[in-house]
Amino acid sequence: MLVLTNNAVLAIRDLTTELSGPEGVVLRIATDPSAGGLTLGLAEQPAQGDQVVDTAGVRIFLDAEAAQFLDDKVLDAAVDPQGGVQFAIADQPR
């Protein structure tokens, strides 16, 4: 299962709270077949078949293909000098 670092938890919490308040939207990661990668979006509820990852009270939704791809990964985040959030995916340590 995808693991979130503390930095990712804080960034996602800040981002979703800033956009919609404490009980609003959740980050959703989905596959984008046309681009051959992953997309980040916001959702109020998981879509049918989504996996829900809950870490320290922060939830994210993963579509089925993204969940499979990210199963052995770690999601990290950093804030750049302009205040933008940069997400990074790495392999989980073995």
Count of alpha/pi helices: 2
> So what's the oligomer here?
single chain
Structural class: alpha/beta
Return the CATH architecture.
Sandwich
Strand order across the largest sheet: 3-2-5-4
Shape: globular
CATH superfamily, called what? HesB-like domain
Give the distance, in angstroms, between the N- and C-terminal Cα atoms: 14 Å
Instruction: Please outline the major beta sheet.
Output: 4 strands, mixed
Low-confidence stretches: none
What does the average pLDDT come to?
90
Instruction: Briefly note the CATH topology name.
Output: Hypothetical Protein Aq_1857, Chain: A
Q: How many structurally independent domains?
A: 1
Order of helices and strands: EHEEEEHEE
Query: Strand share of the residues?
Result: 35-45%
Q: How many extended strands?
A: 7
| Estimated radius of gyration | 13 Å
How much helicity do the residues have? 10-25%
Name the CATH class: Mainly Beta
How are the SSEs placed, and which strands pair?
Elements: E1 3-4, H1 6-20, E2 26-32, E3 37-43, E4 51-55, E5 58-62, H2 64-69, E6 73-79, E7 85-91
Structure description:
The chain has 94 residues and is of the alpha/beta class. It has one domain (3-91): Sandwich (Hypothetical Protein Aq_1857, Chain: A). It has two helices and seven strands; from the N terminus they run E-H-E-E-E-E-H-E-E. The chain has helices spanning 6-20, 64-69; strands at 3-4, 26-32, 37-43, 51-55, 58-62, 73-79, 85-91. The protein has a four-stranded mixed β-sheet with strand order 3-2-5-4. A three-stranded mixed β-sheet has the order 1-6-7. The protein starts with a strand and ends with a strand. 22% of the residues are buried. The model has no long low-confidence stretch (mean pLDDT 90).
